[in-house]
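Long-time lurker. I teach an intro course on protein structure, and each term I like to show students one example going from raw sequence to a predicted 3D structure in token notation. This year I'd like something fresh instead of my usual example. Would anyone be willing to generate the tokens for the chain below so I can use it in lecture? Attribution to the forum is fine with me.
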Amino acid sequence: MSAKIKVGILFGGRSVEHEVSVLTGFQALGAIDSSKYDVTPVYIARDNVWYMGEKMKDIAFFRQEQPALNELTVVLPAPSAKRGKLILIPEDEGGLFSKPKRLELDCILPACHGTFGEDGCLQGLLEMAGVPYASSDVRGSSTGMDKLLTKAVLTTAGIPVLPYCAVEKSGWESAQSAILDNIEDDIGYPAFVKPAILGSSVGVSRANDRSELETAVDLAFHFGFNILVEPALTDFTEINCAVLDGDPPIPSILEQPIAHGALLSFDDKYKGNAKKGASKGGKGMAAQTKLIPAPLDEELTEYIQALAVGSFKAIGAGGVARVDFLIDKEGKVFVNELNNIPGSFAFYLWEHMGKSFTQLLDKMIERAYEVNQRRNRTTFSFTANLLAGR
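-- Reply from a regular --
Happy to contribute to a lecture. Here you go:
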């Protein structure tokens, strides 16, 4: 009998989406096939310190206002490219004359949302380790996380996006009036103001006049150095489509959140389900009322699924990503954004297609190994002997 694959589920992180990530991590922990995998949850705290421990296998540990992190073990991630492993070394173990106890992980399932976990930072560490991981790579992660880069890439690929204005914090500080004038001329009202690198509706505001626009821009700059302003469609339908990496990538069934026509806040998305969603098999984001499948005709459904796959490929995404669309009152379809690691891995969309969450995780891990093997066949360096004789 072959040894089980040692899978690390990483969640948490230094992000405004920290709690959402904890929920996703625990959902994956409850769904993964323990007969196939030896699973280790790894918690990344808000200060980016990594922890392991038995107590954190219970979601109740994280419901405390101040989780007792001193009851966990601090671990240091160490890439081992030669072995293709991510090694976790307890910080308080070992020393000059003792061998540290360590855990070697064969594959990583990143469940981190937002900065440092979904934007390519974590993926860079995993690339250095040469370990298979089930998410977008560094390029796909960083591009998909940045709404401005996403729009630029999708526009180049011929994929429709809403018009937008990009604003840099340095420019805002020196020329607010001129920037407001440009936004009013190019976008008008109502408008949505968003941080360029963030998710879960954090820092997003709707502006109906110049005063509200100025306030919204100031708020968005609390969460980053670049923001974008888009027209707020007054009559639209929101549609989401997940994509599973493969050759070719596979689109999911479509969903339509019924609370369209208004900004869905962070609280709307998550807080109503936070307690029951992770601990008792609830569906987190899936517990929000949605129409699945979305009530669209076959032609439009296939068009949106094709755009989702095209967006996934243009960004260079991997693992499971979710592409969010807006359909205006005239029937025009626009890609709103791409989520490299969607909440709950959007597993509920695959369930409607007959694929369980457990099977979805199996496919993600299987694909992680395929991508890693392909990466290992790529030449990244060569010997030029430039230092000879110097």
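Some talking points for your students: The radius of gyration is 22 Å. Residues 56 and 62 are 7 Å apart (CA to CA).
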